[in-house]
């Protein structure tokens, strides 16, 4: 079987479905069903759950297209998109010795070529600098804000935020008003042509209205220009509130009372926002109400802005401030008195109460104190220490005579005595 050829077919195809349509052709090469991303009306579908793939197996090493079948028929005019999305990876290596597998090599080369096609098509769909653009401005997106704004491109600052949708709507309203004025002027001119009795006066009025409408239309066009591109001023001014005079082009559609935003080309965070107080010839005076950033700038771009919004809701309570200094001592007040009124005994389990029967200056407190419940018997205490010996008591009565004891053993013989003979004569 021949190896899959890689053609020039793009790796993304889009269909507008008929009612109930389920089958859609896959015109480009792929290697596995999971290489495909399928979308219906922008929502990514899931393989097996939402669709199945029948691949063309004519060749070896991959699939030369095939058919995709939806599990549920599409709704009329559904946008079905099939896109190749191969995840670049290499799961196995060629052996370091032994026979060389040419078929496997062909498959890997085919995948590389298809990946190149996929990558080139993804790059071509991205926003970028043209081949003939020799400038070096940045294409990094500015940090997003919560206010919807247009995106502008400056030759030095690169991508930056422009007018908000609110500002564009205000300029659009001015253009609508101008168009209505032009319609009214045309109607006046038509009436003037049919009213012969006052033709001259009607023509003059129509001409005046037309001139005013033309002026309004011109001003609206200039206002629209101010919303999108703005007008430049090189007046050197320090960022701050209050009256600020800019030198700009004459004849722009700016009126006293309009709100304008002046931003520095060095960075959109440096700005002054306020209301026009005067515009004469090339001098524009703005009463600045809000500012951002700091410093003195001379690279201003001035655009139409929305009016200042209403005061927002109150923010959360701030942290407690430091303790203030002690106030001066007040005058001595009258001495209050406190007296005890009645003291009653409440029942077991009742609450103790104290009632002021007097006034705040002469208090008389009546107390009710509940009786406590009888407590449980306590445990036996430990034995106390031995007391001191008492005094000798009186002698008791003599007991009965005991029995005669047994005869004791004979004692030893005593020493020989010295005889003394005394002769008595008669």
Quick structural summary:
The protein has 426 residues and is an alpha+beta fold. It is built from 3 helices and 20 strands. The chain has helices at residues 102-124, 165-194, 199-228, and strands at residues 12-16, 23-26, 36-40, 43-44, 51-55, 66-70, 79-84, 149-154, 158-164, 231-233, 237-238, 242-247, 259-264, 267-280, 283-292, 296-297, 300-304, 337-346, 353-356, 362-370.
Verbal overview:
This protein has 426 residues and is an alpha+beta fold. Among the domains are: 12-90 and 102-124, no CATH class; 164-304, no CATH class. It contains three helices and 20 strands. The chain has helices at 102-124, 165-194, 199-228; strands at residues 12-16, 23-26, 36-40, 43-44, 51-55, 66-70, 79-84, 149-154, 158-164, 231-233, 237-238, 242-247, 259-264, 267-280, 283-292, 296-297, 300-304, 337-346, 353-356, 362-370. It has a six-stranded antiparallel β-sheet. A four-stranded antiparallel β-sheet has the order 1-7-3-4, with no helix packed on it. The longest helix has 30 residues, at 165-194. The model is unreliable at 418-426 (pLDDT under 50).
Q: What would the keywords be for this entry?
A:
426 residues, alpha+beta, six-stranded antiparallel β-sheet, four-stranded antiparallel β-sheet, 3 helices, 20 strands, disordered C terminus
């Amino acid at each position: 079987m021949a190896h899959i050829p890689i053609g020039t077919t793009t790796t993304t195809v889009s269909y507008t479905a008929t009612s109930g349509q389920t089958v859609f052709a896959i015109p480009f090469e792929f290697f596995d069903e999971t290489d495909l991303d399928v979308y219906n009306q922008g929502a990514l579908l899931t393989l097996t759950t939402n669709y199945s793939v029948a691949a063309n197996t004519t060749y070896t090493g991959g699939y030369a297209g095939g058919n995709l079948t939806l599990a549920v028929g599409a709704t009329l005019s559904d946008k079905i998109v099939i896109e190749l999305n191969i995840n670049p990876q290499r799961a196995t290596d060629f052996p370091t010795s032994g026979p060389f597998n040419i078929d496997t090599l062909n498959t890997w080369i085919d995948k590389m070529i298809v990946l190149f096609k996929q990558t080139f098509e993804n790059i071509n769909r991205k926003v970028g600098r043209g081949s003939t653009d020799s400038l070096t401005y940045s294409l990094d997106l500015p940090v997003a804000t919560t206010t919807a704004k247009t995106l502008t491109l400056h030759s030095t600052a690169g991508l930056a935020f422009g007018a908000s949708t609110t500002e564009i709507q205000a300029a659009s309203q001015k253009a609508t008003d101008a168009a209505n004025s032009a319609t009214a002027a045309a109607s006046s001119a038509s009436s003037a042509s049919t009213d012969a009795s006052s033709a001259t006066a009607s023509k003059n009025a129509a001409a005046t209205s037309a001139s005013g409408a033309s002026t309004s239309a011109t001003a609206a066009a200039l206002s629209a220009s101010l919303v999108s591109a703005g007008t430049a001023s090189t007046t050197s001014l320090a960022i701050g509130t209050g009256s600020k005079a800019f030198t700009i082009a004459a004849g722009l559609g700016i009126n006293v009372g309009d709100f304008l935003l002046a931003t520095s080309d060095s960075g959109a965070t440096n700005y002054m926002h306020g209301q026009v107080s005067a515009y004469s010839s090339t001098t524009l005076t703005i009463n600045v109400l809000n500012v951002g950033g700091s410093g003195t700038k001379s690279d201003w771009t001035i655009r139409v802005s929305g009016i200042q919004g209403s005061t927002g809701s109150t923010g959360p309570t701030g942290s407690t401030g430091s303790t203030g200094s002690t106030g001066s001592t007040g005058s001595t007040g009258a001495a209050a008195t406190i007296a005890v009124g009645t003291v009653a005994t409440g029942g077991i389990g009742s609450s103790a109460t104290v009632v002021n029967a007097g006034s705040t200056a002469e208090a008389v407190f009546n107390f009710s104190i509940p009786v406590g419940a009888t407590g449980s018997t306590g445990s036996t205490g430990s034995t106390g220490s031995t007391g001191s010996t008492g005094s000798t008591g009186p002698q008791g009565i003599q007991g009965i005579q005991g029995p005669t004891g047994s005869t004791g053993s004979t004692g030893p013989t005593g020493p020989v005595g010295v005889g003394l003979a005394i002769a008595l004569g008669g």
